[in-house]
């Protein structure tokens, strides 16, 4: 099966599954439309993946969520909807234009009171959260620049507790993650991240390859086992 044909099949199946399993969602459709209108890159998680994040947050009863990488707020809203009335989600974004679009989307979704967006470099905003004594967070979603993944992981470990879950997106890179000779900065960042996970005794981990409208990629799912 050619790559083109594979992508056509993955997209067709994703569309079928979304039509069967996901209700019509004008709010999320608005988020995607506004992100596109503003010229943001089309790299948000897919609707099915967003629902997976929502369900994971809901199943674990997450009351405090940390997101590293906001973009237009699609995944943020999916997770924030799973919060209890007194829950809180902190999302970190480096690009002012992305943050502006996301804030408008949060207001449109009626979730601005549960979401705190912090603008700045992820490493800096994570350090500020630590300094303020924020956390522990029940769920962390890492979906930002891949070369910094290991730094985000180490900071996340300091901001979580035993039982917390850390999810990292885009860890397969169309299969390039298995290429030891790759010189791609994102691939190298993911490989360093996975090496750090493997060497970390506080973590139990797995990774899932995914296909769909976003192509061929995957998630790493980690559980903090000990302080």
**3D shape:** globular
Query: What's the total number of strands?
Result: 7
Number of helices: 8
Helix percent band: 40-55%
- What is the CATH-assigned architecture? 3-Layer(aba) Sandwich
The domain tally reads: 1
Quick overview of this protein structure:
This protein is an alpha/beta fold.
List the helices and strands and how they pair.
Blueprint: H1 3-21, H2 26-37, H3 47-59, E1 64-68, H4 74-80, E2 88-93, H5 96-109, E3 115-119, H6 122-131, E4 139-142, H7 149-158, E5 165-169, H8 185-198, E6 203-212, E7 215-224
Describe the protein.
Helices cover 44% and strands 20% of the residues. It has helices spanning 3-21, 26-37, 47-59, 74-80, 96-109, 122-131, 149-158, 185-198, and strands spanning 64-68, 88-93, 115-119, 139-142, 165-169, 203-212, 215-224. The chain has 227 residues and is of the alpha/beta class. The termini are far apart. It has a 7-stranded mixed β-sheet with strand order 3-2-1-4-5-7-6, sandwiched between helices. β4 (139-142), α7 (149-158) and β5 (165-169) form a beta-alpha-beta unit. The protein has a single domain (3-224), classed as Rossmann fold.
Which properties best describe this structure?
single chain, 227 residues, alpha/beta, Rossmann fold, 7-stranded mixed β-sheet, 8 helices, 7 strands, globular
């Amino acid at each position: 099966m050619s790559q083109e044909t594979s992508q056509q099949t993955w997209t067709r199946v994703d569309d079928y599954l979304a039509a069967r399993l996901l209700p019509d969602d004008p709010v999320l459709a608005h988020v995607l439309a506004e992100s596109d209108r503003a010229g943001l890159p089309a790299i948000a998680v897919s609707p099915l993946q967003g629902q997976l994040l929502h369900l994971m947050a809901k199943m674990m009863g997450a009351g405090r969520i940390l997101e590293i990488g906001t973009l237009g707020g699609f995944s943020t809203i999916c997770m924030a909807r799973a919060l209890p009335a007194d829950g809180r989600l902190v999302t970190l974004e480096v690009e002012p234009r992305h943050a502006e679009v996301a804030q408008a989307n949060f207001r449109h979704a009626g979730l601005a009171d549960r979401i705190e967006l912090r603008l700045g470099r992820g490493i800096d905003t994570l350090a500020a959260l630590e300094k303020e004594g924020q956390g522990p967070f029940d769920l962390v979603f890492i979906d930002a620049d891949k070369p910094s993944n290991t730094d985000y992981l180490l900071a996340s470990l300091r901001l979580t507790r035993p039982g917390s879950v850390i999810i990292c997106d885009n860890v397969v890179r169309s299969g390039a993650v298995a290429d030891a000779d790759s010189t791609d900065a994102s691939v190298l960042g993911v490989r360093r991240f996975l090496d750090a996970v493997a060497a970390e005794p506080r973590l139990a981990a797995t990774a899932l390859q995914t296909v769909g409208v976003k192509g061929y990629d995957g998630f790493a799912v980690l559980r903090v086992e000990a302080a």
